[in-house]
Design a protein that fits this description.
Elements: H1 16-25, H2 45-56, H3 73-92, H4 100-108, H5 116-124, H6 127-141, H7 146-149, H8 157-170, H9 180-190, H10 206-220, H11 225-252, H12 257-288, H13 293-319, H14 335-351
Helix pairs in contact: 1-2, 2-3, 2-10, 5-11, 6-9, 6-10, 8-12, 9-12, 10-11, 10-13, 11-12, 11-13
Length: 354
Amino acid sequence: MPTTIARRVLPQPCGELSSRVIDALGTTVGSPVSISLPGADPYGRDLHLALHTCYGLHYDAFAGVDPAWEWDPGLLGARAELERVFLAALRADTVAGTDVAHELDELLVVPDENAGVGAFLRDDGEPRHVREYFVHRSILHHQEADPYAWLIPRLRGRAKAALVAVEFDEFGGGRGERIHQRLYADLLAGAGLDPGYLRYLDVVPAPMLALVNMMSLFGLHRALRGAGVGHFASVEITSSPASRRMVDVLERLEADVACVAFYREHVEADAVHEQLMRRDVIGDLLEREPELSESIVFGIRATELLENRFAEHVLECWRADRTSLLDSLEFEGREELSMAVSGVHREFRAIRHS
């Protein structure tokens, strides 16, 4: 028997922008949504929690929120302003280019084996670090492959067929228990964590929210379809070696079989997906629409930018021997959010040495 779906509750706001959006969703559809963006940090958690909540209406439902909010003109206008600030920052912080082949070749270069989050986990990682990493990535993997589905009606011919083939694998090849989102929920449970949908959203800081929001941004806008394809290719090309390293880390730590299984699946599947994305999706797309080359390069470089920001945040915290998740001390005076953060850290303390 299928389990009953438990709808997620709205997240706890963390500033003015997220408060305006989240408060509006608790009211009648059509209520005005007024936001003020001058001085807003384009990579800050307040902006990205507000944007993530807007995008959330296009994914699963929020408990107690009227689904008609999804297409409310006032909320869409507010979302467009948030997107404008974020997209402008991404464009300003990446170098424009049109040489797609060069970018794809660069993605195939073996990364420095002694740098990055993977190297830290390999050399110094403890179970607590791995669990924190799992919590960060849960915000992405609970929606894994969903944003790319929006690209399907925006492609034609071989590019469409190849992208659907990749998505078919991401969604378990027709088997519900093999959907990658489900495999990640199994991973969380195997690590002693809560597998619930976006359970840890209130404790994940801005860098991961920005990365996930970028995926939704590229997927939802036809004008950014090239960037969406570039991002998807970047993920598929770099995933296999990164997943192979995670398998090594988890086997060293004698992790639960479900944790290893998730990454082993990506070692095998994404090695095939790399060729499909490069040759059939991007190759065919550029034959039909060569003017999208700059957008594809932008998607690749924006992905690298945000992945690097995420890695820098995590490594800075771990090297200082502190958590990379939000600390409840940051939220004094915001009782509900402070309690939510404290609750997660109690979970971590309970399983730290398990």
